[in-house]
Amino acid sequence: MTDLYQTQRAMRAIRKAAMQRGVVALLDIGSSKIACLVLRFEGVDPARQAEGIGSLAGQSRFRVIGASTTRSAGVRFGEIDTMAQTERAIRIVVQGAQKMANTRVDHVIACFAGAGPRSYGLAGEVDVIGEQVGEQDVARVLADCDLPDIGAGREVLHAHPVNFALDNRSGLSDPRGHVGNHLAVDMHLLTVDEAAIQNLVYCIRRCDLELAGIANSAYVSGLAALVEDEQELGSACIDLGGGATGVSIFMKKHMIFADAVRMGGDHVTHDIAAGLQIPMNVAERIKTFHGGVVATGMDDREMIELGGESGDWEKDRRRVSRAELIGIIRPRVEEILEEVRAILDAAGFDRLPSQQIVLTGGASQIPGLDGLAARMLGQNVRLGRPLRVQGLPQAATGAGFSSIVGLALFAAHPQDECWDFEIPAERMNGKPLRRALRWFRENW
């Protein structure tokens, strides 16, 4: 644990210092687009200073002063595939956001969708030292959680304490200051492929930027798209991106499960391009303007001009019916939703008090998708858009920007994680995270 714990604490310190200086950049590295926001922080809201727990608790006021988006390059399935192309795209989008903000940024917080996330539930319990629960008691009980065998080549990305119990009282969000004798905790651990994080760190360092935090896209999309009651009662956020579909489940305002499907909107575009034998850019345009998943009697008569630039006049002037286009799109969308349903079933989503499902992400805007998802997933389904934040451009308020807006909320309103607490020195090499993060020691 020592390397991972110290590195995450270092990133937290970097983020806190950047926020105190006033400016930090956010990067959403997706398969279809790379987005960047520049935030200016205006200090901590004193009225909400006491909310939450942990060293970074508190609500920082912020506004967006720069925004930029560019077409993604070198990213597949939500993971970096071609380093040089991704580096070039990141440089372009960061420079655009800096120009709009009229300031330079050196620190970025990034999120990504792939890397095969897996969730684990951990539990720990200790006896309280003294009469009241203190910071050291919370650190000790978190350190008592035994790390499961997460497998070779996998590392911890998030480690949230989701529930505290003191003696016979459960459901505590912050046990500090409470009187009791026996403290227990339930913690949610999210692991990802080590190589994916390593590539992301290298790519950002090649862009002359310093990494101040990493987050999972499914997690931050849930922060942006789910309203407060949905996060409290139990809801799932399905982030339909370009190369991957992220699934996150929230309960009691904490993420308790996350996973991903290695399919997204780009796969629908590929199917259209292959089925109609047209270029990818034409397929994307047709999907955007004419796509759908539910055919009606009118769609047989609605003809779509394919267009093209092949030089063959006959081929470029072809037309297809909208019903034929829907016949290509629907099977792939059904396949994605089947994978999502399997993930929700494996997570025990049907046992939550509320079973609201929120669809967000760029691919969620296909007409009729919410109705198809409601029939296939068997739950209440709605389309989610990101919460409005001050200064956000109108172009960045759509469902495709849930991740980047959620990342802003993640930066300004942090939830506690294991590394926010000072783990006792005698437990550093004990049960909690015995696996050292080798590449952090060698390359950070």
TrEMBL record:
Is Membrane tagged as a keyword?
yes
**Keywords of the record:** Cell cycle, Cell division, Cell membrane, Membrane
Annotated SUPFAM superfamilies:
Actin-like ATPase domain
Q: Which GO terms describe its biological process?
A: FtsZ-dependent cytokinesis
List, for all copies, the residue spans of the domain called SHS2. 24-225
Q: How does it sit in the membrane?
A: Peripheral membrane protein
Pfam families, per database record: FtsA, SHS2_FTSA
Q: Where in the cell is it found?
A: Cell membrane
User: Is Ligase found in the keyword set?
Assistant: no
Q: Which residues cross the membrane?
A: none
**Record's GO cellular component, any one?**
cytoplasmic side of plasma membrane
Main location (coarse class): membrane
Provide the assembly information: Self-interacts. Interacts with FtsZ.
- Its job: Cell division protein that is involved in the assembly of the Z ring. May serve as a membrane anchor for the Z ring.
Q: Which family does it belong to?
A: Belongs to the FtsA/MreB family.
The identity of this protein, by name, is: Cell division protein FtsA
Q: Which gene encodes it?
A: ftsA
